[in-house]
Amino acid sequence: DREESFGIDESLKELAQLADTGGLMVVGSTYQKLPFPNPRTYIGSGKVSEIKSAIHALDVETVIFDDELSPGQLRNLEKAFGGDVRVCDRTALILDIFNQRAATHEAALQVALAQMEYQLPRLTRMWTHLERQAGGQVKGMGEKQIEVDKRILRTQVGYTNAGKSTLLNRLTGANVLAEDRLFATLDPTTRRVQIKNRKEFLLTDTVGFIQKLPTMLVAAFRATLEEISESSLLVHVVDISHPLSEQQIEAVENVLSELDVSSIPKLMVWNKVDKAQDPQKIKLEAETREDVVCISALTGEGLEEFCDAVQHKVKDSMVWVEALVP
Ligand code: GDP
């Protein structure tokens, strides 16, 4: 049903944005409705010819499919398109981007592992078993030793491009890479935040999500995401100006539900209110909802309220932590 609320057009738009993030120039897109995918070429033979003509007319180098292709389909399509045309799928594209953007050794290892996991089921059908094994390795390899007071560590999560880095920069004056691209943030960045005379806290920015995020990537980044389970507060940053913000919220919630973090207090931040079509309406709606603050990381609007909400929430969770200490 996720597929239904997130339609073909939106999915292709996001795919185009992913391709752009991966450094490709998108020259066109197309789709076909079939009762079931063609086992040999995924699309029908007429569509193959149509794309082949477009490849020649537009001098196309890469054809990306929005669904996962079997190794056989991949080979057959490359053969059918001919020449040096590269055929790949959404998962391979995402892995490429992660590869380009892995800034630390740890992230690079996680990506390498995810790439292996992508290859493995193409060699054998023992997919879940291998995924489990590999997942265990990541945890051992990737455990991070951040020396922090766990009681005040918070992790923010959000959809990719929601404005997490911008918010972090705005709060700390730090210079974290903020780009209008997907997955600018792969490695968690932790910053100390102190605003006016409020208590200091630590803020960690974590990897963003997209629709149809391959499960293997969630598994590979489990070590990174597991920091979430040690947080005092989970801040979910949403680009509220995005027409699909509701589906994006759902995508993040889906990943979170796989991580067993239901006991951690949560705060939802509706960011980019300056860019929203009807900011007034959104602000009013946020006011009626507990656990939602409305901000603009760009203009600074609502940041005071955000910090107040954080202090309030963290105070509650500290009481909870202290209650566990004999
Ligand atoms: P991240 O992927 O969640 O870390 O997102 P970024 O912080 O990199 O922001 C993605 C894009 O949104 C950048 O181009 C930012 O300048 C822009 N952006 C972030 N916050 C706001 C905001 O409050 N208002 C507007 N208009 N743009 C924003």
Provide a descriptive summary of the structure in words.
- The protein is α/β, with parallel strands linked by helices.
- The protein has 2 domains: 2-94, Rossmann fold; 104-126 and 133-324, 3-Layer(aba) Sandwich (Rossmann fold).
- The chain contains 13 helices and 8 strands.
- The strands form 2 sheets. Strands 4-5-3-6-7-8 form a 6-stranded mixed sheet, sandwiched between helices. A two-stranded parallel ribbon has the order 1-2.
- The longest helix has 22 residues, at 303-324.
- It is elongated, with a radius of gyration of 22 Å.
- Mean pLDDT is 74; it is low at 123-154.
- It binds guanosine-5'-diphosphate.
- Residues 158, 160-166, 178-180, 184-185, 208, 271-272, 274-275, 296-298 line the site of guanosine-5'-diphosphate (GDP).
Low-confidence stretches: 123-154
Helix content: 40-55%
Biggest sheet overview: 6 strands, mixed
The total count of strands amounts to 8
What CATH calls the topology of the largest domain is Rossmann fold
Bound molecules: guanosine-5'-diphosphate
H/E element string?
HHHEHEHHHEHEEHHEHEHEH
Average of per-residue pLDDT values: 74
| First-residue to last-residue Cα separation | 47 Å
CATH top level of the largest domain is Alpha Beta
List the quaternary state of the chains: single chain
CATH architecture of the largest domain: 3-Layer(aba) Sandwich
Rg computed from alpha carbons, rounded to a whole number of angstroms: 22 Å
Shape: elongated
Q: Percent of residues in beta strands?
A: 5-15%
Look at the structure and name the CATH superfamily of the largest domain.
P-loop containing nucleotide triphosphate hydrolases
Structural category: alpha/beta
- Count of DSSP-assigned helices: 13
